[in-house]
Specification:
180 residues, alpha/beta, Alpha/beta knot, seven-stranded parallel sheet, 8 helices
Length: 180
């Protein structure tokens, strides 16, 4: 066994990425403060071929040096849009038939390992502010609230870790990896 070289990985170019079919997943960042977390969301979103990243409220937007440091160019491949109000975006997405899923610790949340995304439906995954989480009004409006189970002493993951765990789990359940 040997590590693969960059050429052997056979990754898509930015142009190829933009033209291929995307997975039925959207990322929504609700007032995320850290530009490094924003960049990580882009980079992870690229890896899972998300349809789009919505940057809401105070969430930083490209181009910015701190975002680029962790995005490693993914702001060029992944479609994105800044939206001032997360709640209005959620209402719009729901009208379009997109299932909205907030990742949050809340009463009546469903454990991620038990959550089953609806096949054939696009899901928008909402991740909140590093201190305050997803806004309470947004949590009340979404279709599902999902929580990542934890066994240790800490009460939360870094948002970039949460995005990776969630995309891996839900993407796997949606069989996005079986298409190529």
């Amino acid at each position: 066994m040997k590590k693969l070289s960059m050429d052997e990985l056979d990754r898509l170019s930015v142009e190829e990425y933009k033209s291929v079919e995307k997975s039925p997943l959207i990322l929504v960042l609700d007032n995320v403060r850290s530009l490094n977390n924003v960049g990580s969301a882009f980079r992870t979103g690229d890896a899972f071929r998300v349809q789009k990243v919505y940057l809401c409220g105070i969430t930083g937007k490209p181009p910015h040096r701190e975002i680029q440091k962790t995005a490693l160019g993914a702001t060029e491949s992944v479609e994105w849009e800044h939206v001032p109000d997360t709640l209005e975006l959620v209402k719009k997405l729901k009208q379009e038939g997109i299932q909205t899923v907030a990742l949050e610790q809340a009463s009546h949340s469903v454990s991620l390992n038990h959550f089953q995304p609806q096949p054939g439906i696009t899901h928008a995954l909402l991740f909140g502010n590093e201190v305050f989480g997803v806004d309470e009004k947004v949590v009340a409006e979404v279709d599902h609230v999902v929580e990542i189970p934890q066994l240790g002493t800490k009460h939360s993951f870094n948002i970039s870790v949460s995005i990776g765990i969630t995309l891996w789990d839900i993407g796997g359940k949606m069989r996005i990896f079986d298409k190529d």
